[in-house]
TrEMBL record:
Keywords: Cell membrane, Membrane, Transmembrane, Transmembrane helix. It is found in: Cell membrane; Membrane. It comes from the Bacteria. This is Na+/H+ antiporter subunit D. GO terms for cellular component: plasma membrane. The keyword Transmembrane applies. InterPro entries: CPA3_Na-H_Antiporter_D (IPR050586), NADH_UbQ_OxRdtase (IPR003918), ND/Mrp_TM (IPR001750). One of its GO terms (molecular function) is NADH dehydrogenase (ubiquinone) activity.
Length: 532
């Protein structure tokens, strides 16, 4: 028996259990915010360490499945960790920890006496547990449970502070999410009615033997539910109105991470159940539309948060492009691009939080002169912005090249159209972020149409926006050290994907090879597989 066979069953459930235990403890100590913060950071650090260990063991020894409580498949809960899920766990744990540090720095600077931290921190940990559950789930039911935990926690985080704008955005978000959950349940019913199981590995075998109409109809319904979660066009209209209203740390986590849970579900199910690319053309068309519509929406925005929300939608299209190709090269590009985009998009939203503190607004009509006022802030924006736009040699460029090569290798007309669409989208992304740079950082504030207006104080969890003349602002909104350091760490992590592009792409290729060969996953879960 190897070390991983001894260790993995003991630790594979910890990314779910540790944050739930931390959430319970933070509720118990709700009146002691400093102790709450320490418990929260300790739990998230533990999840990060466990995720790193899982990644090492799985990359060395291969996919591993654990039956919780010893119940056999499909009666018990199956948790599966392979290279894809371990990689997603590690990146998400890293991002969740740094964003939590960013939020702690904000509270230390502004004081948390009047902030709803007693609710914020436990809910944040529950969200972490939901993300981990979705990545580890080995069956449709527990994937649904992970999504619902996410939904409940994200609704609370989205409406924290209970302002009219946030409540309105939260209601829209929860209505769309509930619709997605209902569609998910209908899909589960159709799939179960066709195959008699919800276990991913058994479904890979039984869907292959089921009538093609029934299996494709059931999966098409699930694909709609996953498409809403991932914000794939035309199911993405809810996102730009929901995310920008939340506090900066919440928006950063939502933008960087939550849509990738939907992308993960599409990668997992599509590669395992339909490795021959049955839904490839549909995904390619949706990927192209997501890229183009998203970036055109970004160009029209004057609010930086809304602009970045549209670029978020646009770049989901790159990932769908790689998944739709259904080749090892395409999946390699998609896996690498998911990790790149989580880090870069989260970093950009954290920078926007710093801009709001520094300038008193994130509207391009009101701000300017930030490069002179804070050169550090300029660097923190410029690096991930160029990375997002795909400027060489950043990881955004490497990920896009990997996807373009995969499209060229496919050689179909539709794949070449996606290649052209990807290049155009990348150029338009550069235009969008260059516009932010020229107006917010380069242009003097006096030349901004509404440059005389600013928020009276830095924004916190409880939004209390009062606008005053810039000259009357008493608090210049200095950037707290912990907020800057956590942002620097995320920007550096994005650069590390460039420096370590070879090993990272190698890992993504191994993960893609596992995904492209469903027997790896099936054998790990079922042992001796059922006959096809």
């Amino acid at each position: 028996m190897t070390l991983s066979q001894d260790l993995l069953p003991a630790i594979v459930a910890l990314p779910v259990l540790v944050p739930l235990l931390g959430a319970a403890l933070t509720l118990v100590f709700g009146r002691r915010p400093r102790l709450q913060a320490m418990i929260s950071l300790s739990a998230l650090t533990t999840v990060l360490v466990i995720s790193g260990l899982l990644l090492y063991l799985v990359d060395r020894d291969g996919t591993t499945a654990v039956q919780v409580g010893g119940w056999p498949t499909p009666i018990g809960i199956t948790l599966v960790v392979d290279r894809l899920s371990a990689g997603m766990l590690l990146v998400s744990a890293f991002v969740l920890l740094l964003v939590s540090i960013y939020g702690a720095g904000q509270n230390i600077s502004d004081g948390d006496e009047n902030q709803p931290t007693s609710i914020y921190r436990p809910t944040y940990l529950v969200l972490t547990a939901g993300v981990s559950m979705a990545f580890l789930a080995g069956d449709l039911f527990n994937l649904f449970v992970g999504f619902e935990i996410l939904l409940a926690a994200s609704f609370v985080l989205l409406t924290v502070g209970a302002t009219e704008e946030r409540i309105r955005a939260g209601i829209a978000y929860v209505m769309v999410s509930m619709l997605s959950s209902m569609i998910f349940l209908i899909g589960i019913g159709l799939i179960y009615g066709t195959t008699g199981t919800l276990n991913f590995a058994q479904l890979a075998l039984r869907l292959d033997a089921a009538p093609s109409g029934a299996s494709t109809a059931g999966y098409a319904v699930l694909l709609v539910a996953f498409g809403i979660k991932a914000a794939v066009f035309p199911l993405s209209s809810w996102l730009p109105d929901s995310y920008p209203t939340a506090p900066a740390p919440v928006t950063a986590v939502f933008a960087g991470l939550l849509t990738k849970v939907g992308v993960y579900a599409i990668i997992r199910t599509n590669s395992l159940w339909f490795p021959d690319g049955t839904f490839g053309n549909i995904l390619l068309v949706c990927g192209l539309a997501t890229m183009v519509v998203g970036i055109l929406g970004a160009i029209a925005q004057t609010d930086i948060r809304r602009l970045l929300s549209f670029t978020l939608i646009s770049h989901i299209g790159y990932m769908i492009f790689g998944i739709g190709l259904a080749t090892v090269a395409g999946l390699t590009g998609a896996v690498y691009y998911v990790a790149h985009h989580i880090l870069v998009q989260t970093a950009l939203f954290l920078v926007v939080g710093l801009i709001e503190r520094q300038a008193g607004s994130v509207s391009l009509r009101r701000i300017g002169g930030l490069a002179a006022a804070s050169p550090l802030l300029g660097v923190l924006f410029l690096v991930p912005a160029l990375n997002l736009g795909g400027i060489p040699p950043f990881s955004g460029f490497i990920g896009k090249v990997a996807l373009l090569e995969a499209g060229a290798e496919d050689g179909s007309v539709l794949a070449w159209v996606l290649v052209a669409g990807s290049v155009i989208t990348s150029l338009l992304t550069l235009y969008a972020v260059a516009r932010v740079w020229s107006k917010a950082f380069w242009r003097p504030r006096a030349e901004a149409p509404e440059g005389h207006l600013t928020a009276a104080k830095p924004p916190t969890l409880v939004e209390d926006s009062t606008y005053v003349h810039y000259e009357d602002r008493t608090d210049p909104g200095r950037m707290p050290a912990l907020m800057v350091l956590s942002t620097v760490a995320l920007v550096t992590a994005g650069l590390a994907l460039t420096v370590l592009a070879g090993p990272t792409l190698g890992f993504a290729e191994r993960a893609a090879a596992d995904l492209h060969d469903p027997t790896v996953y099936i054998d790990a879960v079922l042992g001796t597989p059922e006959p096809r």
